[in-house]
Design brief:
alpha/beta, binds adenosine-5'-triphosphate, 7 helices, 10 strands, nucleotide-binding, Rossmann fold, ATP-binding, transport, Putative ABC transport system ATP-binding protein, AAA+_ATPase, about 35% helix
């Protein structure tokens, strides 16, 4: 699905050769500052590499329109934005510019169930806790039905038990819907439990690639 050829970004990443497979769960692991988030940001063109090429389904990323690409490849950042308004408003905001039909309230409640948030749609989103806000943002991304979901340490504001439940739900969602999940995590335990592939990054270089 993605293949990297001699990709360099500033003095932060230097990736000679890397493949990320379609319909798999891939975890990016490595120490803080090693370049994991930067790698995710390259994949949906939030930033552009200085040299080399990344191919997405055999097409060079440099030739794909960023907005079109981001209909396919959606990223949930470490600290996603929550806007003033209800949980429902916040769930639907990602679909605003898409041509997809708006989901019914029942579908929205299904998504809330998936992200383990047991709240009413009309509740004020700004009054939620940090972890609950993160789950709303995750629901927003799932509703966009991306081919590729990029998650940057989705669990940072969550306790361990909730983290486990959510990652498990996301992995199941990915498998059942034939999607691709690429997830940054600090936790080797999370990586070995949930991923099909683990990519380890150190000082901007891939030092290990393994199937689990
Ligand atoms: N826009 C930027 N300009 C300059 N340096 C940057 C930029 N973005 C990130 N960096 C630096 O690049 C390195 C890699 O950052 P990155 O956020 O990719 O690491 P990470 O592996 O995701 O870390 P963490 O696990 O702490 O989130 C860090 O040293 C960071 O300070």
């Amino acid at each position: 699905m993605f293949s990297f050829k001699e990709v360099r970004y500033k003095n932060i990443l230097d990736i000679k050769n890397l493949t990320i497979k379609k319909h798999k769960v891939t975890c990016l692991v490595g120490q803080s500052g090693s370049g994991k988030t930067t790698l995710l940001r390259l994949l949906n063109k939030l930033i552009s590499y200085d040299s080399g090429e990344i191919f997405y389904n055999d097409q060079p990323l440099s030739g794909i329109n960023s907005l079109e690409l981001r209909r396919d490849i959606v990223m949930l950042p470490q600290s996603p934005a929550i806007f003033s308004g209800s949980i429902k408003d916040n769930l639907l905001i990602g679909l605003k510019f898409s041509e997809q039909p708006l989901p019914s309230d029942n579908e929205l409640y299904e998504v809330l169930k998936l992200v383990k948030l047991h709240k009413e749609l009309n509740q004020d989103a700004e009054k939620l806790s940090g972890g609950e806000k993160q789950r709303v943002a995750l629901g927003r991304v799932i509703l966009m039905k991306p081919e590729v979901l990029l998650l940057d340490e989705p669990s940072s504001a969550l306790d361990e038990e909730t983290e486990h439940m959510i990652i498990e739900a996301l992995v199941n969602y990915t498998k059942e819907n034939n999607k691709t999940l690429i997830m940054v995590t600090h936790s080797k335990k999370v990586a070995s439990e949930f991923s099909d592939e683990i990519i380890e990054i150190k000082e901007g270089m891939v030092i290990n690639e393994e199937g689990v």
